[in-house]
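BACKBONE STRUCTURE TOKENS:
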Amino acid sequence: MMAASLLRRDKKSTAAHLKADLKRTDNSSGLRQLQELLDSVLNPERGSDPEALDWCKWLLAGGDGFDEFCRTVRSYDNATLCGLVWTANFVAYRCRTCGISPCMSLCAECFNNGDHTGHDFNMFRSQAGGACDCGDGNVMRESGFCNRHRLKTGENVPSVPRDLLLMSEMVLPRFIITIIQYLRDGYTEPESAADRDLQKVLQQLDPHISFLEELTKMGGAMRTVLTKILTDQQTFKELSMGQEDNVYAKKNYEKYLSALKSSGLVSVEEKGAAGGAGDGTSDAAAGAGALSLLGATATASLDDSSKEEDQDGLQGVGQRKRVKLSSSTKDPSIMDTLKHKCFLEELLFWTIKYEFPQKMVTFLLNMLPDQDYKITFTKTFVQHYAFIMKTLMKSHESDTMSNRIVHISVQLFSNEELARHVTEECQLLDIMVTVLLYMMESCLIKSELQDEENNRHVVVNCGEALLKNNTYWPLVSDFINILSHQSVAKRFLEDHSLLLLWMSFVSFFQGMNLNKRELNEHVEFESQTYYAAFAAELEACAQPMWGLLTHCKVKETQDYTKTVVRYCLETLQMWFDAIGFVDEPSLNQLTFHLPLHRYYAMFLSKGVKCQGLDLDSLLPDQEMLMKIMVHPLQIQASLSEIHSNMWVRNGLQIKGQAMTYVQSHFCNSMIDPDIYLLQVCASRLDPDYFISSVFERFKVVDLLTMASQHQNAVLDSEQERPMLEGALTFLVILCSLRIHLGMSDDEILRAEMVSQLCMNDRTHSSLLDLIPENPNPKSGVVPGSCSFEEMLSGVADFKAPVFEPGGSMQQGMYTPKAEVWEKEFDPIMVILRTVYRRDVQSAMDRYSAFLKQSGVHTGNPWPPYKERTPLHPCYKGLVRLLHCKTLHIVIFTLLYKIWMDHQNMSEHVLCMVLYLIELGLDNQVQDDKVEEEPCIEEHCHDSWFPGTSLLSNLHHVINFVRVRVPETAPEVERKRERERERETPPSTSSESATFGQNLREAQVFSLVAERRRKFQEIINRSNHEASQAVRPKSSASRWLPPGTPPQLVTEILEIRESMLSLLVKLHQKLSAKQNSLSLSWLAEVDPAHHAHGDGLTAIERILAKASARSRHSKRCLQEICGKVCPPIPPKKISPGDKKSMDKEERRQRARERQQKLLAEFASRQKSFMETAMDVESPEADAVMDVSSEESLDSEVLYDCVICGQSGPSTEDRPTGLVVLLQASSVLGHRCRSDMPKRLPTTDEEHIYPEDTCGATHDVRLSLMQRYFKDSSCLQSVSIGWDGGVYVQTCGHTLHIDCHKSYMESLRNDQVLQGISVDKGEFTCPLCRQFANSVLPCRPGRGMETGAWHAPSTKSMSTLVKEVEDLQEQLGIFPVRASIKQRDPILIESNLSKEMESVIKDIKNTTQKKYMDYGKNPGSPDNDFLFMYSVARTNLELELVHRGGNLCSGGASAAAKRSCLNQLFHVLAMHMRLYSIDSAYNPWTRLTLSTQSRENEYCDEERPEVPMLFRDVPSLLIIFILTMPQPLRKEHFTCVVKVLYSLQFTQALAALSIRFSREERLAWSNTGAAKKNLPNSDKSWESLLGHMISELTKAKDVYDTNSEETSALSSSVWSPQSIEFRLQQFCLPFLRLSCLLQHHLYGDSLPGCLVEEEFSLLTRCLGLAASVQCSGSMSSAACLEWNISAFDLISQWCSEVVALSDTPSQQSASLLGQDPQWAAPRLLQLPDNYNTIFQYYHRKSCSSCGKTPKDPALCLVCGAFVCLKGHCCKQQGVCECVLHSQHCGAATGIFLLINASVIIIIRGHRFCLWGSVYLDAHGEEDRDLRRGKPLYLCEERYRVLEQQWVAHTFDHINKRWGPHYNGL
């Protein structure tokens, strides 16, 4: 009842009243009232209504306003942490210098307020969300705190008054339980309801949760209250059950209980089925229990019977596999259903159930700065961990959910204290490992490796969603995160049962993703599961391994290593048993995944390297070693097979696997441990056994015979060579790689860096990426640590970013120093690290280029031999590989085969053989000091070599060898021939016969048999009898292919060579000289000189080493060299061999021919490119240069680039220039000042567009149109500053009819990108420059030569009259058809048709708004204005391109490519259509003093524009264009003179306005005094005086702004400064006239100094013929008046005076125009990109107020636009495109804020230009992925600006695409 009355009163007073009640000591009535009120307000059945929230706010505030309350609470904030929580895509910072945990991150504010100068930091876009760690000493060093969190704020904050938060403590528990009840009620199991129901519930709750979030942001005081409520178990008990009478609450509670039921890892029913096995004592029962707990498939029954069988099999596997490990799940409670004791736990529970809604996550995280809360929350999180992962596996949105989970867990587990705490108290490690196992068990399948039928091993199935979508990563990343803490990792390593569990987890990945080689047809479906497999091994196995390894660095941790190694071996043994492995790997199977082997290898390596363990103590017996060796060796052989195209039928993915295996992110967790493991095996097993295993695995055993022919049962002959090369290369890598065998970390880093740099020059970031770093972030080899930088500067030189003339931009690159090539280039390391085989070639090419350049060696060098770092003593056994007979026999055989030119040998084979010999010579075995004598009879090859030392075996001569050859082999035939020659049997002395007999017994050699024998020997060391019973030679029988090969027969070959003699003979063969090594050679050899070179050098180096190390060898060598005999040619070459040799030779010759042709072609192409392509270079082909001066009066000939004919342009078949028309606003963006405008980066800065050239001209025109006659206005100014049409050409010409057919062919060709043929676009057929129109060339002579140039002697007045007459003849066009507007009956020639069509193109180039400035659009006046403005635009732009003046003379590139001459004629022809009414012809007003016309003004509604207001260059262009062509030069000069006087007068007027009143008076007096002197019309003083006195008549022209002007011109005007001002004012007009004269008459433009420009131009234009002294040129001296100057000036002034009705300041502003403009510039950008980024990436869009997803900036005007934003779309066109049309007439240059790159929009196309911001290493950072600080690269920005001004975007940038208005 009372509640109702309370509800009726206003909220404020109620709240105040209740608060007063509750403050009393006896507050029971207050409590009761509050409870009742809350019952009715917060009744959850009413749903969420805003009213309830409102009540809560008032109640919390207890009578104050809520905002006020917030402020008060904030003032008590005692938090020392920032704790700002952000969501995905937020921009945060990470500083590695300050971080203790690798996950440390800072918000932008804390980062910018801290001092991180010189630190290793980067900016990043958050993937999953995060929180700011500023102030948290567990995660980062205090030095990095920002100045706000550096002070321990807690100490000086007053304690909170009790009553402030009293109401909060009362109200909030009820508020929270309301939310919880709502969540309970809304929840339905996802199976039954659609996900969107959950979304709906969340939407309705949104305001409530937002309110909670708001509260958390109030600071420490409020957080404490919330923590208390959330963790208080008593309140939870009271409120959670629901009161008995409340049905709604009860119903909820039941829903909640049912939801809880399914929260265990295993649901209740399954548990029932397992029958409480958890309590069972017997091992089996416990196993079954654990099995059911682990959610195995035991209880799952499937309908499908076939599935069921499969399942049964699996279940058996599962049980047998897991009985061992089940008992170690210590605490079954991990798996049980959850029980909740406080609000926090239930809130988290619902957060999980609803799949982590963002708001809830943020609320829970916002509370973390509260320490008590942090601990409780972490425990709660761990308690729910299993449940979270279970939910994740079922979720449909696993990606978003993963991100949210990691968002939370990374905040909790990065803190070592917390992690240790929950590991100890809540068994975090057990939970994680168990959950991981549980996860993976959902996707196990039977392994098919080795014994497919009886294999008992299970592996994960990489095709399952769990692996394919990386669903496991949140779990694994948490696991890696906690293992990075030493205390946690030690616990893990000490807990043996956990380790065992972990090993069984790792074994799920052992042998996954098995490949079977396809032998018959190509595989139908290429599965891409391999990437999931590699990712899984790297993330789930390798990274935790690296994490553990970082804690095994010191002697004290030896035991950990021993334990891990022991368990690895046990698990491996179990694995071998499970897959049924005996001793031979099964054929044609390959898996790249052996994580158990790799764990074993890495812990071995660590133990030996860091913990001083003895290797032998960690190794198993020989038999186990042999087993361990098999699979890694299989991978190495298969790599070779894949590169030999033997797996080609398995599709591309198998190549992908081979590449991923060695790729930089994987190699140190995959190939490196594999090779290390093989090195360990090789150092401990019998070397003969190991070597023969290698050749057998590589399938090249059959090739290793002395016979010239053989049969290989397993390889095609074209695969033999690559496989042999592979086997030898592998042996070389095995013997020479030292990564785990004794190199220090620095040496490894250096070697890695050198090998990457040798392949290619690299950017800093790609180098960081390519150097395999220890994947665990805490490992200390942090990329970018100082040692990386030091190392880099040690081995490489930095090449600054440069530009190529084509405009493609280079990044800053590092390139190896010369001494690196000389001493450190290691081809073996390069081969090991290359993903693509072509990189090896690239490294060799670069190496040989270096040798050529430094003059060391000019030929084709061989890979250099590199000395190795010494072996760690533990691995000395590896050297025995190089000193075993088997290897020596192989080497001997191969040397012999190469010398005899047997097939399938190659240079690479020889190279590797020599490498092995040299390795052997450099690594002697220590034990045998005495050279062994063959004292013991060995079974098989005692007579090949006496001992095992390579040195002594080198000179051992082998006489006879017995070989098995096919009957067809040449050896057999040779023997038959011999027998035919001597019918008698060989009569030799008996001893030699026995000798031969002896040989026949011995010299047979079978690798396979040898290997079997050794294997047997090792296995049966104990019983001798068994060693006799060698297994039957299964290999031979098993490998025989079907079909009947020719019979094998045994033959004896006579050899009589030793390895030394073979080397000498090979030397002779390579050098093609008979006695290439003289006796004296040995004496003078110096091995150091032989470091670089080809095969000869290598052989010489080896021989030198051999003779230096053994006297015996030296003697033998001298004998051999002494005997020097011609190399024994192979006796008879069988025709087959001959053919193959010829073939080789022919191929070689063909290759040489091809090289020659290619070189010739390249040089031709280069010379063409230089002449035709180079856009910038002025030396273009003179042929195409249309404006080149012709000495003769002949017609100009043009070359057509399509049909190749040369001829004049005629009326019927006109020729045209290839041109590109584009609208341009570059001129309109010019400003007065030379300094570019700055880009605003704060709210205070702005850019004002009013002062640009375009804006000024617009204002001027509209001002005129207000007061003067429209048609006259349209002739008084030029338009085209914005959106003017610019015409440029590449200088090539073509027949217009040829062009049309060319366009047709393009139309049918669909492949052209970025060119729309419908719009007339094409590329020039010769130089491929982009173009879109053809400008017809006028028939006739090139330049007006001869008579037209004769200097004129006529007087000025005659010329003026002639010009006037010429203007009268408008209609007469000097072509055969006279064209008049009103005369339609005309024959149009082809030429005029083309001209019309070009005019149409020109009009279509720009937008309508840039053409219609008149009152009535489309009128002839308007058209007339547009046409002459096109000429003006092109002249002005050429001036800009020449640097704004003509000082540089005629050599400018612009002139060469200029088409102004042609353009002028086309425009002139078009303008001839309009006649200027002679009554209004400005010429008369310029040259006659006509007083008669004043009275005519009265009938006009508006006056014409006074002469002084008109734009002089416009008049010039109008006159020239409307007079008949060709114009005599004298007439041109006359027009210029007349207009110059007008320009000069305007200059005086503009100047006089700037004077103060006193100055005006003074100057007018001076002028009056000089007026009567002779030549006064050529002195500016008199003219100025006259002008001032005339203009003073006008009503207040001068009085308008006298105050401001006087302020402006505080400096006094001296005569010099006035003269300078006048010259500057006239210069723009003179420049344009001069340029026009240059194009029309071909006059050259001499260069000069800037100071002399005025005098030079006046001389060129013939204004200053009389005045010769160039020194002090007076501007007035150039005037030539045809009538009295003073009269004319008075008349012009009177026109202004007559404008009585115009307001005076307008007249003044029209008079005071200034024609000078600075060059166009882009905005000035700040040096540091961060300045732009921080201001703009958060700036909101002006139209919708939200922060745009892709903000962009216009670099021309600074506008802030949304790229692709839908908010700013107009008629389907997005904002960037719109802005480009508005600001740049369809050219836009935009900087994309979030990507730091610039895009160019040109019309309907766009392209990515690149970035002008580079990091410290000269690299772009597109999309800010690396987030390193970026700095403005001035050169690049200049290039961008230059391309903009020169309009060359279309030519220089190649990759254009259509934007469909979507940008």
Observations:
- The chain is about 50% helix and 5% strand.
